[in-house]
Write a structure and sequence with these properties.
single chain; five-stranded mixed beta sheet; globular; alpha/beta; about 230 residues
Length: about 230
């Protein structure tokens, strides 16, 4: 069975649309590893692309910040906006009720089984589902020894990882909405649960709408544009 792996969309519906156009004909299911919110504001557009029959996901740290603000009736902190921009605040103002319900439905982790292979899904790490980070140069792989499942799927870092370690296959597909190793192409991966093979893939997208929005709403936060164009 071929499974598409996506993560860290961050309100970038343009990149998500490009990725799904590739995956729709290549995989039977798509697993999402968190962060629909944050950085860019087009979260409703992202959720409108969701296919309940083929897509399953977990919650990310920016999704959790959104839900916490919604629950408390507050806006994101000044520290948050200084680091990530105004998109989450605008998402709080504009997101539709069905999209809010969708974000609330995402769990912190999931365990699935396909073709006798158990997959565990986290945004961050098994020991810190929202905030844990496992970068390509991570050096404490022994920590995964007690994590259930043959395949462990992670997001959060925006860097692609494929690591075979003592019977565990650990994968981060990178970021759909804001890849950080190089710009211009949305990252994703395809896992074949029968062969155990993993393809790390990229597809180009047009960032102009994102750049226009960032320059209008966050003119003093140049990172939002630079990370898409560097």
């Amino acid at each position: 069975m071929k499974i598409g792996l996506i993560s860290d969309i961050h309100g970038n519906s343009l990149a998500l649309e490009a990725v799904l156009a590739v995956l729709i004909d290549e995989v039977e299911q798509i697993l999402f590893l968190g962060d629909l919110c944050g950085y860019y504001p087009f979260v409703d557009e992202c959720i409108s692309l969701w296919d309940d029959n083929r897509m399953v996901g977990v919650r990310g740290n920016h999704d959790q910040v959104f839900l916490d603000c919604l629950h408390s009736g507050t806006r994101p902190s000044a520290e948050y906006e200084a680091k990530f921009g105004s998109a989450l605040r605008r998402t709080l103002q504009d997101l539709s009720s069905p999209s809010v319900s969708f974000l609330r439905s995402l769990p912190l982790s999931r365990t699935l089984t396909h073709n006798g292979v158990t997959l565990t899904l986290y945004h961050g790490s098994p020991w810190n589902p929202l905030e844990g980070r496992v970068y390509p140069d991570y050096d404490n792989w022994d920590r995964f020894g007690d994590v259930p499942g043959e395949v462990i799927l992670l997001g959060h870092t925006h860097y692609q990882v494929v690591k075979n370690y003592r019977g565990k296959l650990i994968i981060n597909p990178g970021s759909v909405g804001q890849p950080r190793d190089r710009s211009g192409e949305a990252c994703f991966a395809i896992l074949d649960t029968t062969s155990g093979s993993v393809q790390q893939r990229r597809v180009p997208f047009d960032p102009r709408r994102l750049i226009e929005d960032a320059r209008e709403h966050d003119p003093n936060f140049s990172y939002l544009v630079e990370v898409l164009t560097r």
